[in-house]
Every structure is written in structure tokens, then in C-alpha cells.
Amino acid sequence: MSATRTTQRSATSPSAHLTPAPPETTAHDPVSLWASAQVTALNAPDAPEYGSPAWCALRASDPRRSVALITAAEQWRRHTAQEAWLDHLLTHDPEQWFAHVTAGANDHARTLAGSLARRPTHDELAARRTVRTPERPVVATPGWPPVAIPGRPGWWRHVGPRGEQLDLPHNHPKEKARCPPTYSPSRSTRRFGC
Predict the structure, then answer these.
(1) Pairing mode, if any, of strands 181-183 and 165-168?
(2) Which of 52, 87, 129, 153 sits in a 20 to 30 Å window from 70, CA-based?
(3) Which residues contact 116 (CB under 8 A, 6 or more apart)?
(4) CA–CA distance from 140 to each of 81, 159, 169, 171, 179 (Å)?
(5) Gyration radius of the chain's alpha carbons
(6) According to the model, what pLDDT value does residue 61 have?
(7) SS (H, E, C) the chain
């Protein structure tokens, strides 16, 4: 009869029937309580991190060395328990695994949702770019240099002697009273015919 029980036990592993709880929610964890009691009993505040140069410099009898060792061992135990629990969830309940793994990202996304909702969308930004201000006419201002005329390369708008706007093919403020030059076929000199 005992041989039958042994074969039945070995056929199914005990972990196949148990669904582990998350390690951080396990109530009254005896190993964690023992580790906490040992650290409290050693009464060694400011223990360096296990394996650090400061920890290596401590004497073997220094209680801070033991506190660092117990703390590191407990952190590793909790880490491996958390990983085992997540692996079990991934295998047996992928939806709960996904909810647990993305919980932090979802909480962070909720904090950003308000500011993101107030930002303009791509379509709204594109619509803003298409709205153009009405074109302003090019006006030369007295006391300022002549203004280049858009669409007419080589022409500038000047202020005439009576304050009128003159379009001339030069950018020389002193020549603003003169008209555009004309060429005489008989002479090779430049004349201004106004």
C-alpha cells in the first residue's frame, strides 16, 4: 500500500495543485520574521551593502557584516519568490500576469492622461499651420533702406521725393530720385530719362 502511495505522489508534483500567492502579500512569513529579528538583535545601523568595498573592509566579527549578509539573502529570496510567482502566473493565468506586470505603467499613464488630453492632436496642429495671415503689402519707410520686392528679383521699393512708393531696379538710396537708365544706340553711355 505504501508503494502505491509513493508512485501516486511522484506522478504529480505538489506544486501543480497549489497556486502561489504573491510573495509580498504572504501573511506571517516565518523566514522574513526570522531575518528581521536577527537584524534587530544585531543592532548594527548603517550596514554597508553586501559585497561592496566598505563591506569587505569590515572585520569578520563586525555585526554590520552579518546584517548586510542577512539583508542581501532576504532580498534575493524575495526576488526569486517574486520571479517564480510571475512565471507561474504566466503559465497558468496570462491575463492576471499581464495585469500585474503592466499595473505600474497603467498607474503612470493615468497621471499623464489629463495633460495629454489638453494637448492638441496632430490634425489640430496641421489645421493651425494651414491658417495664414493676410499678406501685407511691401511698403518702403522713410529713413530706412529700400525693400526688396518679392516676386521681382532685382527690384527694390524706395520712398520717392514726395513720399510716394517707387519701384526701381537698384538698391542705392542716393539714386532714388533718378529714373531707370536708358541706353542710346549711338552712344555707349548710360542716361537717366525722366
Answers:
(1) unpaired
(2) 87
(3) none
(4) 80, 6, 14, 12, 17
(5) 43
(6) 92
(7) CHHHHHHHHHHCCHHHCCCCCCHHHCCCCHHHHHHHHHHHHHCCCCCCCCCCHHHHCCCCCCHHHHHHHHHHHHHHHHHHHHHHHHHHHHHHCHHHHHHHHCHHHHHHHHHHHHHHHHCCCHHHHHHHHHCCCCCCCCCCCCCCCCEECCCCCCCEEEECCCCCEEEECCCCHHHCCCCCEEECCCCCCEEECC
Bigger pLDDT: 132 vs 146: 146
> If you average pLDDT over residues 59-64, what whole number do you get?
92
- Residue 54's CB: how many other CB atoms inside 10 A? 13
Mean pLDDT across 157-186: 72
What's the length of the chain?
Answer: 194
The total of other beta-carbon atoms located within 10 Å of residue 134's CB is 4
> 10 Å Cβ neighbour count for 67?
23
Phi, psi of 157 (to 5 degrees): -100, 125
Selected residue with higher pLDDT from 40 and 179: 40
Which pLDDT tens digit goes with each residue over 72-86?
A: 999 999 999 889 999
Following CA atoms 31, 32, 33, 35 in sequence, which dihedral angle do they give, to the nearest 10 degrees? 90
